[in-house]
């Protein structure tokens, strides 16, 4: 349980009343003259985000008013854990029909602080969750988001492949799943040549991590994550500015792990398989080179056009393996291209999909969860940009145009056409502070993907 919630109980909580322009006009008719004067003196008009304590006749603040323009937005109250004085609060509506479970999730996300290396600025204000709410769901969504953020925010020295492996192993133990890993040169023996090639220059051995959980009779859902612990760019080295935040290049793995955590904690009726391809793209005497040709797990040969396009290399081996079991749904997460950021910005999860029904479900879920995602095209006309003169394909196109699409088309070569597939190309990082979304590691599309899984599989037995 996160430390920003109290579930049920008899502890007295200070009400926080949600108001908009219309409900505030009605509320004012019920207030005492001195309360109206106080609100007027504080220029309170129920504008979005306005917060004002409302004094009682004895001069103490017995409730707060918060202006909320969109009651469907989970982040409408997400700054309250740090704006309100420490204490216990409850959310109430006066003529405002709000989704209080969604707002509670926003409250929890607003209480987040990364404290591994620096003490918390302050204790967050706590929210009392009524017994009528889905308490477990609220807490698990917040906990999984914290997991994703914490992993991405952790510096590379403490989030190398072996550290990611420890996270997955701990999750498997907690939820009574199974965990296996293939490490270092074992990757060659087990035919994962791309993962090995990308990670062989690092002192931190590359590895393929696998977690299994659930009833084998349930639909198989396979999650795949790009776990590049740090991306120097390899021999095609990044400039300093491009390398600065490359601790986040394992953000795809963090997302896959976070979603797996949610699936297990909420006991969704699926047979879960998690695959994380993890490596550090480092530079050493044995680093792979531009112009090298690698034979992938699928048997396709790949000419290396650029060593900084390494994420799709580790993913292609994992996707090939994922498709051997013909999952009912295959989802991969990756911080793959800057081109996706150019297309949709840093605050929307770009995705590609080979199944129209699945794409529509995700889009609908993203709107309902207020967790923005947007589909980019798998335009086959760009496939020729990946042609190689000496191998079956190149790992990236020679032109920057349509870079997110050409990266997705590369991955598509390794996905069974009969398997419904979603590929997320995400930022995994907030570049500005917003309520409930501080600068740093971020879970993007996580709540939308949970809702999509529930839409497709909950109730199926």
Short description:
With 461 residues, the protein is α/β, with parallel strands linked by helices.
Which stretches are low in confidence, meaning pLDDT under 50 for 5 or more residues running? none
Largest sheet: 8 strands, mixed
Helix tally?
15
SS class = alpha/beta
Rg for CA atoms = 24 Å
- Alpha carbon gap, first and last residue: 29 Å
Strand order of the largest sheet: 7-8-10-9-13-17-14-15
The dominant shape is: elongated
Strand content: 15-25%
The whole-number mean of residue pLDDT values reads 95
Name of the level-1 CATH class of the largest domain? Alpha Beta
Question: Can you tell me the CATH topology of the largest domain?
Answer: Aminopeptidase
Helix content: 25-40%
CATH architectural label of the largest domain: 3-Layer(aba) Sandwich
How many separate domains? Answer: 2
Please give a handful of descriptors for the protein shown.
single chain; 461 residues; alpha/beta; Leucine Aminopeptidase, subunit E, domain 1; Aminopeptidase; six-stranded mixed beta sheet; 15 helices; 33% helix; 21% strand
What are the SSEs and their pairings?
Layout: E1 5-7, E2 14-19, H1 21-28, H2 33-41, E3 51-55, E4 61-67, H3 80-83, E5 88-93, H4 100-110, E6 126-129, H5 135-153, H6 161-174, E7 178-183, H7 186-189, H8 193-199, E8 207-213, E9 220-231, H9 240-243, H10 251-265, E10 271-281, E11 293-295, E12 301-303, H11 311-323, E13 329-334, H12 338-344, E14 349-353, H13 356-368, E15 373-375, E16 393-394, H14 403-412, E17 421-425, E18 429-430, E19 440-441, H15 446-457
Parallel strand pairs: 1-6, 2-4, 2-5, 5-6, 9-10, 9-13, 12-16, 13-17, 14-15
Antiparallel strand pairs: 3-4, 7-8, 8-10, 11-12, 14-17, 18-19
Helix pairs in contact: 4-5, 5-10, 8-11, 13-15
């Amino acid at each position: 349980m996160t430390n920003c919630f109290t579930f049920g109980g008899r502890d007295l909580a200070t009400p926080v009343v949600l108001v908009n322009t219309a409900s505030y006009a009605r509320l004012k008719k019920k207030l005492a003259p001195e309360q109206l004067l106080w609100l007027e003196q504080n220029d309170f008009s129920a504008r979005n985000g306005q917060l004002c304590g409302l004094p009682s006749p004895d001069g103490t603040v017995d409730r707060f008013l918060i202006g909320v323009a969109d009651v469907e937005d989970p982040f409408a109250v997400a700054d309250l854990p740090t704006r309100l004085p420490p204490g216990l609060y409850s959310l109430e509506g006066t003529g405002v029909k709000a989704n209080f479970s969604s707002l509670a999730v926003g409250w929890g996300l607003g209480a987040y602080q990364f404290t591994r290396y620096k003490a918390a600025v302050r204790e967050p204000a706590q929210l009392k969750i009524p017994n009528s709410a889905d308490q477990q769901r609220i807490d698990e969504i917040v906990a999984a988001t914290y997991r994703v953020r914490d992993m991405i925010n952790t510096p590379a020295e403490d989030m190398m492949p072996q550290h990611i492996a420890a996270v997955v192993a701990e999750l498997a133990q907690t939820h009574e799943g199974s965990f296996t890993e293939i490490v270092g040169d074992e990757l060659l023996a087990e035919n994962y040549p791309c993962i090995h090639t990308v990670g062989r220059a690092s002192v931190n051995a590359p590895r393929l991590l696998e977690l299994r959980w659930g009833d084998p009779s349930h639909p198989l859902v396979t999650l795949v994550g790009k776990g590049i612990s740090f991306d120097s760019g390899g021999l095609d080295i990044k400039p300093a500015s491009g390398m600065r935040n490359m601790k986040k290049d394992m953000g795809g793995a963090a997302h896959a792990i976070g979603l797996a955590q949610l699936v297990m904690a909420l006991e969704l009726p699926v047979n879960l398989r998690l695959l994380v391809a993890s490596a550090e793209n480092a530079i050493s005497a044995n680093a792979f080179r531009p112009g090298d040709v690698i034979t992938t797990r699928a048997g396709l040969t790949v000419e290396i056009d650029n060593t900084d396009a390494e994420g799709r290399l580790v993913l292609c081996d994992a996707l090939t393996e994922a498709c051997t079991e013909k999952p009912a749904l295959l989802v991969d997460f990756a911080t793959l291209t800057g081109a996706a950021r150019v297309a949709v910005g840093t605050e929307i999860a770009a995705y590609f999909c080979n199944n129209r029904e699945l794409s529509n479900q995700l889009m609908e879920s993203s709107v309902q969860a207020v967790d923005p995602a947007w589909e980019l095209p798998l335009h086959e006309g760009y496939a020729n940009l990946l042609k190689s003169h000496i191998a079956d394909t190149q790992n990236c196109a020679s032109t920057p145009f349509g870079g997110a699409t050409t990266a997705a088309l590369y991955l598509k070569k390794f996905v069974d056409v009969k398997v419904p597939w979603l590929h997320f190309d995400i930022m995994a990082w907030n570049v500005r502070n917003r309520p409930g979304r501080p600068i740093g590691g971020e879970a993007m599309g996580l709540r939308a993907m949970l809702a999509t899984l529930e839409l497709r599989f909950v109730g199926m037995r």
